[in-house]
Design brief:
Layout (H helix, E strand, L loop, with lengths): L10 H12 L2 H7 L4 H7 L2 H12 L10 H5 L9 H12 L3 E5 L9 E6 L4 E8 L7 E9 L6 E6 L3 E6 L12 H10 L10 H4 L8 H12 L7 H6 L11 E7 L17 E6 L5 E9 L6 E6 L11 E6 L9 H8 L1 H33 L6 H26 L3 E13 L3 E13 L4 E6 L8 E8 L5
Antiparallel strand pairs: 1-2, 1-7, 2-3, 3-4, 5-6, 6-7, 8-9, 8-15, 9-10, 10-11, 11-12, 12-13, 13-14, 14-15
């Protein structure tokens, strides 16, 4: 009786009925160490093509990750599917929502790393207008073998460093070597990264852990020793590429705890809302179970000069008040239509001011060019103003239709410009019947209390 060994089975049977059905890709790699026959079997390209397509082709076009890099002649390009699979897995770890950690501005910036045709797009989420909660998307770059200019590196899954190699990888470097070196040393994005680095670079407050990490990473970047020729010329030696420009991100983590009977409303996640004259801002709501009682924390992902990105804007008890509510709380609920009208009036004032400034700038430009404003141009501006007004009215109507079904007592944070003299004021979180929520800041106590409502909407559809 002849000996039966696994290598004697047909190749198609082993691949389709054994390897692909019962083994994970990592186990297939380990199997290649058993024997030369199994190594040849485990490295079969057609099998790895099936694995790559099965695991990632619903999210991206796997074949496009190979072609462009091969045709460009890059030595580090991906040429085989078994080489591509770990790259796809690596980029899967980047998918999600991130925010910048550079401490260059109080407003911060929010990014979505999402699958694209031939890589992972890094997209910034920006309010289309300050007075609206509509979000627009600005693609900053694409990661992947077909886009070698940008390379990402994850740190414990919670931090990410994005390197822009410019001319050294893509041949389209848009800032000088001196600017790039200065950016690396200072940790500031170059002008090629965004049109307004002071706003888009965003930031955590200088005292936050994220800002401390950025400063540590900046201090750890060592420049190569300059040659004598470099010292005389003040530039890089021939053939030496400029250093990459670094961009730092922190992952936005969601709550892993589900609400219980004591916490009936699922409020954890990403939200957006109008913060008065500061306009649309984005928040992260999470449950904190570390203290004696659970709390809901609202952390700003994009902020303003008063309360910057990275700070907690309000907190509330995770358990709602029992019904029937106290009369004092019911009286505040009855004021909700007036609060919505006040927010809509602020948005309308911002829209009018923006339209006037835009019209004045256009007229000044036309006069400078010796061209008087045309009637059609004035009509277009009037139509834009009317469109903005219609959107504000529609938003106001949708907010008025919300019905309060839960009240959570809490505290809201307010501060002077520059985050000076921050303090906590009384407030309450309202849970609405449609699953959304809003927070009421009580800006002064006593008989003349002024209530400011920030109604929130889920950000999920914008991601």
């Amino acid at each position: 009786m002849s000996e039966c060994v696994i290598e004697h089975f047909p190749k198609a049977v082993l691949q389709n009925d054994v390897l692909l059905r019962y083994l994970a890709p990592r186990d297939i790699v380990h199997l290649a160490c058993a024997s030369s026959a199994l190594k040849a079997l485990a490295q079969d390209e057609l099998m790895w093509k099936v694995i790559c397509h099965a695991s990632h082709n619903k999210m991206t076009n796997v074949d496009d990750w190979l072609g462009p890099a091969n045709r460009s002649g890059l030595t580090d390009g991906i040429t085989l599917y078994r080489q591509l699979y770990p790259v796809l897995q690596q980029h899967t770890a980047y998918i999600g929502v991130w925010h910048t950690t550079a401490d260059t501005a109080p407003r911060g910036a929010l990014y979505s790393f999402r699958w694209a045709q031939s890589g992972v797009d890094v997209v910034q989420l920006i309010p289309s207008k300050r007075y609206l909660t509509q979000i627009t998307h600005k693609r900053l770059c694409t990661l992947g073998p077909a886009h070698p200019r940008y390379q990402a590196e994850s740190i414990d899954g919670s931090k990410c460093v994005l390197r822009d190699y410019g001319i050294s990888r893509s041949g389209t470097f848009t800032c000088s070597a001196a600017e790039a070196a200065a950016s690396v040393a200072a940790g500031v994005a170059s002008s090629s990264w965004t049109s307004s680095s002071s706003e888009a670079a965003g930031g955590s407050p200088g005292s936050s852990w994220g800002a401390e990490l950025v400063r540590f990473m900046q201090s750890s970047v060592q420049r190569p020793r300059s040659s004598r020729k470099n010292r005389r010329s003040g530039g890089c030696s021939d053939g030496m590429p400029p250093p990459p420009v670094l961009h730092h991100f922190s992952r936005v983590l969601g709550s892993i705890r589900q609400p219980s009977r004591q916490h009936p409303h699922q409020l954890a996640g990403l939200w957006k809302g109008l913060y008065g004259p500061h306009g649309c801002e984005m928040l992260s709501l999470s449950y904190d179970f570390s203290g004696k009682s659970a709390h809901i924390l609202a952390t700003k992902l994009t902020g303003d000069p008063n309360v910057p990105a990275g700070e907690v804007t309000w907190t509330a008890a995770a358990a709602p008040l029992p019904t029937p509510w106290p009369q004092a709380e019911q009286d505040v609920v009855d004021l909700r239509p007036q609060m919505v009208a006040m927010t809509a009036a602020t948005a309308a004032h911002m829209a009018e001011h923006e339209a006037d400034a835009t019209a004045a700038g256009m007229i000044a430009h036309l006069i400078q060019q010796g061209e008087p404003p045309q009637q059609q141009q004035q009509t277009d501006f009037q139509e834009q103003q009317q469109t903005a007004a219609d959107k504000i009215v529609a938003w106001s109507s949708s907010m008025r239709a919300r019905k309060v079904v839960g009240i959570y007592r809490g505290k809201g944070r307010v501060a002077n410009n520059g985050y000076k003299h921050p303090k906590w004021v009384d407030g309450r979180l309202w849970a609405y019947e449609d699953g959304s929520c809003g927070f009421v800041f009580e800006l002064s106590g006593g008989e003349h209390a002024v209530h400011h409502l920030v109604d929130l909407e889920r950000l999920d559809a914008d991601l």
